[in-house]
Write a structure and sequence with these properties.
Blueprint: E1 13-17, E2 24-28, E3 47-49, H1 55-60, E4 66-71, H2 76-91, E5 97-102, H3 107-112, E6 120-125, E7 128-134, H4 139-152
Parallel strand pairs: 3-5, 4-5
Antiparallel strand pairs: 1-2, 4-6, 6-7
Helix pairs in contact: 2-4
Length: about 160
């Protein structure tokens, strides 16, 4: 027991601004299918967070492949990779869900994925790991790696 209070509950839905028309949309962390803009129906970037309590609902049960970013606030290299995760969610909208997992707040999720060091990025499809990247890489390399992982795992 660390003596510190449990992390605050995550929001049920994130507010995502449509890159096409600018409309603000609610995108639930556990929605099925592809989130689309309510006004213009453009696929929306899907970037959310998960912890130990909701990892299965947010990641394992996702109908889209998931880019899982395992990070911690004190980790310098994690800050290098964060923009690439956000850019991957934007660039691959409709094809990918990006989920950030703070390993300090979700140690069971990190253990379950066998994380030895951070940052670690895992691509999962149907609850199975299909690719893993350990260590910081610049955003263009992370996006390229993610696209290759998705192409190599096409069902």
């Amino acid at each position: 027991m660390s003596g510190k209070p449990p992390p605050a509950e995550r929001p049920v839905a994130e507010i995502v601004v449509c890159p096409n028309c600018g409309k603000r949309n609610r995108v639930p962390a556990t929605a099925t299918g592809v989130p689309r803009c309510a006004a213009c129906h453009t696929p929306l970037p899907w970037l959310t967070a998960a912890g130990d309590a909701d990892f299965d609902r947010v990641v394992t049960a996702s109908s889209l492949p998931v880019l899982v970013d395992l990070w911690a606030p004190w980790c310098g290299p994690c800050r290098i990779i964060a923009p690439g995760v956000e850019q991957a969610a934007e660039r691959l909208a409709g094809r990918l869900k990006a989920v950030k997992v703070n390993v300090d707040e979700a140690p069971r999720a990190a253990e379950r994925l066998g994380v030895q060091g951070i940052p670690t990025v895992v691509v999962m499809r149907g609850g199975r790991e299909i690719a893993r990247q350990v260590g910081a890489v610049p955003p263009p390399a992370l996006i390229r790696w993610t696209e290759e992982a998705l192409a190599g795992s096409a069902d």
